[in-house]
Amino acid sequence: MTDTLSGRLTRRLPLAALSLSLFGLLSACATTSALPPNTPGAITDETRMMYAEVQDGDITIPAIEDKYLTEEKKRQVVDYWSDEKPGTIIVDPGARWLYQVQDGNTAMRYSVAVGAEGLAFSGNANIAVKRHWPNWTPTANMIRRDPETYKPLANGLPGGLENPLGARALYLYKGGRDTLYRIHGTPSPWTVGHATSSGCIRMFNQDSLYLYDNTPKGTKVVVLPKERSGEGTVPPSDMLSMTGDLADSGA
C-alpha cells in the first residue's frame, strides 16, 4: 500500500494491530481463522491454469497454490435441478457451494468459504451493486467498540491484495436495502471450502472475477437455509422416490 491512508495506518497502528485489522476483524466478511491447507491431490494442468496468476489492471493476483486446490473444488459445470431461470445464483452455505443456474439442468459450481455471518441470512435477494477491488469501511458500531483499531480506518481501506473483500464483490439487497451480505473474493485461499469463524461468502479471487463477469446487476440470489442444504443436487424423480419410500416405511 502506497497511498496516504496506508501511510497514516502504518504510523498510527502497531504492526500487530494493523495485521489483525487487515486479515481478521476488518468486517463481517473478513477471515479470522488460520486453517490448514487441503491434502495435496492430483491437479490437472487445466485446473492449474484456471487458477494461475492474473494481471488485473495494475494489480497482479497471485496464483492459487496446488495445496489449496482439488479437482472437486475447482469451478466447474455440474448437474443441478432448479426451477430458477438461468443466471440465478443459489448459495448453499451449509454445503459450502455456490451455484449459478444454467440451461439443461446444469449449473456452474463454485467452492466457497462460509463464516457465521454467511449463515445469518437466507431467502431471496438481488445483486444491486458490483465492485472491482472494493473499499472496506468499518461500521459505526465497530468504531465505538474498538476505536483504537478502527477509528484510523474510518475513511475506509482501499481495495487491494490485502483487503478482505478481494478482487470483486457482489452486494445483496432485499427490498431496496443492503442486507450486508456479500459474495466476494478473498486474499486467504486456504479458507475456501471450509467453515470459518466469521465471514460472508468468499471464493478464490480468480473465481470472483469469473462470477462477476457473468452476473449482471439485478441478478436474483437465493440463499438456502440449513434445512434445504443440498437442494438441487438430486433429480426431482429421485426425490419423489425417496419421499415415497419414507412414507411406505412409516418414517
Automatic annotation (TrEMBL):
Record keywords: Cell shape, Cell wall biogenesis/degradation, Glycosyltransferase, Hydrolase, Peptidoglycan synthesis, Signal, Transferase
All copies of domain L,D-TPase catalytic, residue ranges: 87-224
Keyword Glycosyltransferase found: yes
Region Disordered: start-end pairs: 228-251
Pathway(s) where this gene product acts: Cell wall biogenesis; peptidoglycan biosynthesis
Organism domain of life: Bacteria
Keyword Transferase tagged: yes
Pfam families hit by this protein: YkuD
Catalytic machinery residues: H184 (proton donor/acceptor), C200 (nucleophile)
Record's signal peptide: 1-30
PANTHER family: L,D-TRANSPEPTIDASE, L,D-TRANSPEPTIDASE ERFK_SRFK-RELATED
Family of the protein in this entry: Belongs to the YkuD family.
Designated name of the protein: L,D-transpeptidase
Source taxonomy: Bacteria, Pseudomonadati, Pseudomonadota, Alphaproteobacteria, Rhodobacterales
